[in-house]
TrEMBL record:
It holds the Pfam family DPPIV_N. The keyword Lipid metabolism does not apply. Residues 14-117 form the Dipeptidyl peptidase 8 /9 ,N-terminal domain. Belongs to the peptidase S9B family. DPPIV subfamily. Keywords: Hydrolase, Protease, Serine protease. GO terms for molecular function: dipeptidyl-peptidase activity; serine-type peptidase activity. Residues 674-875 form the Peptidase S9 prolyl oligopeptidase catalytic domain. Residues 174-578 form the Dipeptidylpeptidase IV N-terminal domain. One of its GO terms (biological process) is proteolysis. InterPro entries: AB_hydrolase_fold, Dpp_8/9_N, Peptidase_S9_cat, Peptidase_S9B_N, Serine_Prot_S9B/DPPIV. This is Dipeptidyl peptidase 9.
Amino acid sequence: MESNEAGEVQIPVSKKKSWSELKNVVCELRRQLSGLSTMVPGSLAFRTLPDGRTRIYFLSTPANGWETTLLCADVPPLASHGHRLAWTPVIEANFQSLSSAGRFSREEQLLWERKRLATWGITSYELHRESGKLVFPAASSLFQCLDTGFSASIISGPLFPAELRMNSCGAKLNPQICPSNPDLVAYVCDCDIWVSHTLTGCSVRLTFAHKGGRNMADDPLSAGLPSYVMQEEFSRYQGYWWQPRTPDGVYRILYEEVDESDVKIFCFPSSNSNLGEIEEFRFPRAGTPNSQSNLKLVQFVLREGPQIVDVSTLELQYPLSVMFPWMEYLVRVGWTPNADYIWVQLLDRRQQRLELVLLSVDNFTEPPPNVYKLDTNLNPTTPVGQLIQVIYTQTCDIWINVNDLLYFFPPASGTGECKGEVKFLWASEETGYRHLYLITAHVPGVANGVGADSPDNLESEHDTLVSSTLHFVRSKNKLSFFLVWVWHQTGVFLQPRFGQKVALTAGDWEVLGRSLWVDSERQLVYFLGLRESPLEKHLYVVSLRRPGEVRLLTRPGYSYTVDFNKECTMCVAVYSNIQKLPACQVFRISHGDWTVEEVTLTPVAYLLEPSAPEGELFSPELYAHQISSGDLLYAMVFKPHNFQAGCKYPTVLNIYGGPEVQLVSNTFKGMRQLRMHMLAAQGYCVVAIDSRGSQHRGLNFESHLRGRMGTVELADQIEVLQWLAECLGYIDMSRVAIHGWSYGGYLSVMALAQHPDIFKLAIAGAPVTSWSLYDTGYTERYMDLPENNQHGYKNGSILNYVTQFPDDENRLLIIHGLIDENVHFFHTSQFISAMVKAGKPYQLQVYPNERHSLRHLDASKHYETTLLSFLQNHL
């Protein structure tokens, strides 16, 4: 032990270890901390079997396994509380090793990066509930099996999947089973959509957007595959959508065609080659052109054989970019329940205007004429009846956070729909917090898909709105007059026409934006929210008959994630808190009457019982502090495992600090926080703080960093850190390191430049160093376009703080994957070039075969060893 000038006892981490010893420490800590990893079921799906059982499918890692696989568990009709359901493998165990034998394709790797998938094995699957058909991607191909509904372990044993017979080359991605015919499976291969008949093996290419040439610059089109920005920044990974029903025998797939002609191409070392080859990748930097999207429809029929024939591609008569010239992003797409209409959500470039638009299928026709050749192509006999109607518009002076909470009520749903009305659930942050609304929109010819106005009535509606569309087009030219004629003739209503909006929830708390479940018969809406605490996710229910009366259904003191079956009669909840490992429980949902007070969740069985780790559990502690601005901030602290009262410990501030992330919550911190546990086990105090700008605290709280990223976050972090040091008494403020990845890496570097007196060391993983080098969707949402915020971009760039870095050696360590296609290695190379020019010291650790996340075990262990070595030698 050592004492400082104030007489306080300081604890050295331990006797310094060699690199070999630290490698062994990392391996041993990983083994010890593996007890923190519970096999929590994920990606749940429900299916009712003929004998009354409910089969729950899910992805997890079986005991003694290391790859994720597909499992199931059956809930008997009369299951009793406390019963633990047996996990049954759906897929034969040998399949895992066979599917993993091949190398993973570049397309698969990039999709895992976008989805932030941290597992190997089966990572997704498609289930056709009526037939039991299962399809999933693995090892660049697609596999299928049929679950007849019998108990797999008793009757026939696990299923061995069969590979779909396909004549397409390349990785097969994003399979979807046709809702009305499970024998048809569509998928994306080499940037185009294919469909396969799984019984006959007939496989047909449906779209021909991509040429498949070696030169990316000459091959900018793709079909059914969202752009990089759409996947990375808007979390939409699907680019095509089967029509839910096939009443006329014609199968239809709506799809997005993406044109990346104007998006700049960058080169990276190849991930699959040791020969020095490169990969090309399109990436729109802030202020540069994005890709362009349009919707198309491909249709076909089945003939004897069966054979897939009569394939034809239809296009919108007038592209979305013509009708909505302000549109930049096609953020969400889907079909209405009756399958006659398509809905789209359109977002502008600055992400402050969002419109929900309804399109009739009749808008898709043979490729339209060239609208610029007005004299030869104007056809006054174009039929009236196609509908393009804006049914909701949302604007915001800050930015719009796109969410997945949209539900169209089906016909005869008991919501009181009338002729010419569409009712839907919508979520908006217009009050500063995301809440649910019941919207009634007036749409000529539609009543939640039922009924239609006459063409005469429809045309009279057009006449009243033609003048209001003029501001969308350039006046006094042929295109303008032509478009006005088009809108008059075809039923385009660009002005929103919603009649009533009822707030279902309200208050200074947030409805979570991923899922909601609707019991249309009882007019009940189930959702997850944060009413009890920003640190706990809970399940709530609200009635459409009594808006505003929200009832909590889960137990305070825990945080939940929930999945429902389609009928809203059963749900599965995964719950934990900061001190208790996750458990997974099945509940039946019953009702005394139609009110929320009579909704009852009855425990049925466990999928995963509550348990305790094998060794001693070192859980972090949660703290709240009101900072000088009046805002309440939350923090968590991992005590060092060798903690002794009265001693001070070297401390690592684990930071993210940016938007869309919450580090501090009342959930169990397991393997995802492995490195925090690892540092605490080595004698460090580890602190994490959610400063203003973090997630789940409302739009105003999040917008604290708008236009000034990198300049305001650290003040909050330091204020809370200093309060914790004073309050707890064991944080050694003379030995504080800051460590983070991505945005956290960015702030770690910023911290050493702006506050070298506070932070002795900075370890920065994959740091952004200049926002002008990052992508459009993220950067422009929070920083505006560069041309509108030159001051903010300059102040937020690390490159402008190089001269402020300390001249002391061994205070800065930068870690970066060489083939990172998200935060390009160019960020780091620009930064170290500036550091060299300024004569500043730094250390750099490069991982040649890693992207933004370290996915290979050897790289992860090397990074952890490097981290421990740097800290023990210099903190």
